[in-house]
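Look at one such:
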Amino acid sequence: MVSDDYDVLDSTIAAQQKAQDRAIRERRQYPEIQQFMKMPSMGPISAHVFDAFIQTPHRFATKQRLWRYCRLGIRTRSSAGKPLAYKRLDRSGNGELKALSYRAWMNGIRGGKDSNEVKRFFEASLDRTNNRTHARLNTQRKILAVLWTIWRKQTAYDPNLFFPLTPTAQAVC
């Protein structure tokens, strides 16, 4: 009986490895996936999942609509111009993309002393908001916005997408 359980476990591990190998081979056909993987904390599976669920970057007119689809949009309720409740995250949309951005955030802030753009953006957002949850949500939204921008504009990944230069900073440079 125990032997059967180990056989099932062995076959599951083999199937998982085969699927991972196939995903790595398939990424060569999709230039956007190769660019997604250049972002710290994005692996081949996450890059493929983002690509598969979004399907086309032109699906969303604005990044706010993308965030709403990923369950990271803000929902407000009001009547006669008066708020009825606190602002909340919208529950409609795709939870897998929200989980993907959460895992990317978690992987980005790990690493101890190594500082990457995800971690720096989170820390800057934490300084600005003084609220860990709001800083995390801001970072998750930024991760999704950067992936979407790379794909929509068909550009290479650039760490400066997390901290774009303001017009006054561009004038100084």
Observations:
- The chain has one domain: 31-164.
- The two ends are 70 Å apart (CA to CA).
- Confidence is low (pLDDT under 50) at residues 168-173.
